[in-house]
TrEMBL record:
Residues 44-71 form a coiled coil. GO terms for molecular function: rRNA binding; structural constituent of ribosome. One of its GO terms (cellular component) is ribonucleoprotein complex. One of its GO terms (biological process) is translation. The gene is rplI. SUPFAM superfamilies: L9 N-domain-like (SSF55658), Ribosomal protein L9 C-domain (SSF55653). This is Large ribosomal subunit protein bL9. The keyword Ribonucleoprotein applies. InterPro entries: Ribosomal_bL9, Ribosomal_bL9/RNase_H1_N, Ribosomal_bL9_bac/chp, Ribosomal_bL9_C, Ribosomal_bL9_C_sf, Ribosomal_bL9_N, Ribosomal_bL9_N_sf. The keyword Cell inner membrane does not apply.
Amino acid sequence: MKVLLTQDVEKLGKAGEVKEVSGGYGRNFLLPKGFAVLATRGQVKQAEERIAANQKRVQAARKDAEALAARISGQTLRFVARVGELDRLYGSVTSSDIAEKLQQQTGVEVDRRRIDLDEPIKRIGIYPIKVQLMAGLEPVLNVVVEGEAGSLELPADPEAAE
């Protein structure tokens, strides 16, 4: 029995694929649960059109993400905070703070969950931070945390900060 998958099915295939399955598996599991429909010419053609439209949307989203990555990459965000002993901050700089500052400085709105920060920044220094926009697109921006009393000098080479 040939079926067109409407959803991803583990160990069988992804949505939009035409698969040959046993009659019982198709009749008793895939069709009633809505995971698949019978593979007629019309259904297959509609699935191909949906896949083509989805690929166009993904390409457009990737193009937008690349433009956004070009604007973000290399940006330097400065945070001034109160500092205690051993250059430790009173409080911390979080991914929410970074997203807010990035939006203020560049006008680019980035979700805080896309900022790759394992734990909040609690010391003064220069930190290279990745922003995960899309698979394969991770621009790096520099976060400079300095105390109220003095300022940190940026190195000439951003890789030297790592």
